[in-house]
């Protein structure tokens, strides 16, 4: 059971290393965050598409925190274990003019209210169209060393709106620490937006200095276990190159491979995926390596 909590009211609309911590915790402690949905409560289960013309977009994407983790220093890695996620029985997906990958082709607003029940998100009950429910917090990040306010809309090398569906319960996220305490914040960003209570364990790692962008480990029932390194950049090709380069560094550091051998292994066994391509100016590309491939390797 979590011994710490961050209330819904302890939220911000930017990442900024000057924001005072909402909570101080020791490394290895659990925290439950009570996160409101991405609309900051402006969209409800009774909302219609007409509601979208009345909402204030400047209030979107709040993040709860920040949390100061004792012992976290620049150069360390913050490990975030996702332990539990609770969500209500409804969620929403919206189309907002000017936003999205196909914004030019979908100029009109749209809103879908989903029923979340029985392990599924129901798109159309009459037709039996449903999506398996695996809720995740799409926004998790730490403060950057640079001074000033950073928007919660895009992803960064320190996390933020990475919007990666694989980081759900049972997964572990690793973020590079750039300021004392890390100053971790979390918010709900997903294709189906909803409020959530999210319990995580925050631990300081001194043994992963190669973590320069978000890394994560995850398990899929259909695909097995993966370790993923990411690249975050405004240029998709550079983000892709960074993702591969970071996997090479991981394999060299953790398994003692030569760089050329690690590169070869990436080309054969690695799986490149686009994780986040909507929230400009940055893209998130992931290099996912099945851990089953690494089973016969001994860590360095």
Top keywords for this entry?
single chain, 300 residues, nine-stranded mixed β-sheet, seven-stranded mixed β-sheet, 22 strands, 10% helix, globular
Protein described:
- This protein is mainly β.
- Helices cover 10% and strands 39% of the residues.
- Strands 1-5-18-7-16-19-20-22-21 form a 9-stranded mixed beta sheet. Strands 2, 4, 6, 12, 14, 15 and 17 form a 7-stranded mixed beta sheet that branches.
- Strand 14 and strand 15 (159-161) form a beta hairpin.
- Helix 1 packs across helix 2.
- 40% of the residues are buried.
- The model has no long low-confidence stretch (mean pLDDT 95).
How is the topology of this model organized?
Layout: E1 4-6, E2 11-12, E3 14-15, E4 23-25, E5 29-35, E6 63-69, E7 77-86, E8 90-95, E9 110-117, E10 120-124, E11 129-132, E12 139-141, E13 150-151, E14 155-156, E15 159-161, E16 172-176, E17 182-187, E18 196-205, E19 215-220, E20 224-233, H1 236-255, H2 259-269, E21 271-276, E22 283-290
Parallel strand pairs: 1-5, 4-6
Antiparallel strand pairs: 2-6, 3-13, 5-18, 6-17, 7-16, 7-18, 8-9, 9-10, 10-11, 12-15, 12-17, 14-15, 16-19, 19-20, 20-22, 21-22
Helix pairs in contact: 1-2
């Amino acid at each position: 059971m979590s011994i710490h909590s961050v209330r819904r009211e302890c939220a911000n609309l930017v990442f900024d290393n000057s924001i005072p911590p909402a909570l101080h915790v020791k490394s290895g402690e659990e925290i439950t965050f009570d996160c409101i949905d991405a609309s900051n409560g402006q969209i409800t289960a009774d909302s219609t598409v007409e509601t979208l013309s009345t909402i204030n977009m400047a209030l979107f994407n709040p993040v709860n925190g920040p949390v100061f983790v004792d012992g976290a220093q620049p150069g360390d890695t913050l490990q975030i274990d996702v332990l539990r996620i609770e969500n209500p029985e409804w969620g929403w997906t919206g189309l907002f003019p000017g936003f999205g990958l196909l914004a030019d082709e979908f100029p009109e607003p749209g809103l879908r209210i989903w029923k979340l029940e029985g392990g599924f998100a129901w798109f159309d009950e009459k037709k039996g169209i449903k999506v398996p429910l695996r809720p995740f917090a799409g926004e998790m990040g730490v403060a950057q060393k640079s001074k000033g306010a950073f928007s919660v809309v895009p992803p960064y090398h320190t996390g933020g709106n990475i919007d990666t569906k694989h980081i759900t319960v049972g997964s572990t996220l690793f973020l590079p620490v750039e300021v004392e305490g890390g100053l971790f914040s979390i918010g709900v960003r997903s294709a189906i937006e909803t409020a959530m209570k999210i319990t995580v364990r925050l631990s300081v790692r001194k043994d992963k200095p190669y973590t320069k962008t978000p890394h994560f480990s995850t398990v899929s029932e259909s695909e097995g276990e993966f370790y993923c390194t990411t690249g975050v950049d405004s240029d998709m090709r550079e983000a892709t190159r960074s993702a591969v380069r970071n996997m090479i560094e991981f394999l060299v550091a953790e398994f003692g491979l030569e760089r050329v051998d690690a590169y070869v292994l990436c080309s054969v066994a690695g799986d490149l995926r686009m994780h986040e391509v909507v929230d400009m100016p940055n893209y998130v590309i992931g290099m996912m390596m099945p851990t089953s491939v690494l089973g016969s390797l001994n860590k360095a």
